[in-house]
TrEMBL record:
HAMAP family: IPP_trans
Listed SUPFAM superfamilies: P-loop containing nucleoside triphosphate hydrolases
Cofactor: Mg(2+)
Protein name stated in the entry: tRNA dimethylallyltransferase
Methyltransferase as UniProt keyword: no
Keywords: ATP-binding, Magnesium, Nucleotide-binding, Transferase, tRNA processing
Protein EC: 2.5.1.75
Species, as recorded: Flagellimonas yonaguniensis
Similarity remark: Belongs to the IPP transferase family.
PANTHER family for the chain: TRNA DIMETHYLALLYLTRANSFERASE (PTHR11088)
Site description Interaction with substrate tRNA, residues in chain: 102, 124
Amino acid sequence: MSKKILLAVVGPTAIGKTALGIRLAKHFDTDILSADSRQFFKEMEIGTAVPSYEELNEVHHHFIQHKSIFEPYSVGDFEKEAINLLDDVFQKKDIAVMVGGSGLYVDAVVSGLDEFPEVDPKIREQLNQQLEEEGLESLQKELNQRDPEYYKTVDLDNPHRLIRALEVCLATDKPYSSFLNRPKAERSFKAFYIGIEAPREMIYERINTRVDLMMDAGLLDEAKKLYPHKELNALQTVGYKELFEYIEVQCTLEFAVSEIKKNTRRFAKRQLTWLRKNEAILWVPYNAEPKKVLQMVTDRLKTNFYA
């Protein structure tokens, strides 16, 4: 092969990406890179569905709980570290596996980040003030007006992402999405996307079940420990924000859990919207026989990569 191959396992949350990634990594005798931005932080375990101790021991994983919520860590930082790690892995292996539900982070490794213009820091200050005074909904509405295309795919519950998009819109008077998907840097490897799909009803059922299991595993206690740091960017995520509101006696526990399920379902929908734009993804059913999936992957590799 003239190039190494990165197998990128993608799909909506709770669909089974971890299990498929491990299966592929064991089959090809290689490492796994996590591209799930929620799983980077060591203080967040239950609410991020970090692979179990047994799963982590089956295959060598990277970028799992390797940072603290108190450390600034951007998609740009991840891109650089992941590329450096892949250079090392590809010294010994022809194939590496990347698993993640964060489409932006996966795409950053595969094809590099988009370049954006410089933004006056005052614009960000104004948007942060708007968030504090008018709430998250005001940012959501403004982004929908200025860039409806990006509005459809962004995590609307993540104020950092909303502010980043809006500051570019305000600084350039152009949609944030107009700066996306421009020609990017060449990579020393080829990427092969493998997506896991299921009927929407099944995805939602799996999400609801996962949230219940998280609560049984102690997610509320985890949220209580993290509550004093709730303003940190890492904690602006589904599963924690809703429980913070319960801790502040803004709602009942039952309502908070129902909100976690609802917001996770919305997140899954946005994940699929992002992924459906990628026509190169090999989609496999969530309940397909493992041997059949491996055969599908092997056949595609032979056809598109080994030929």
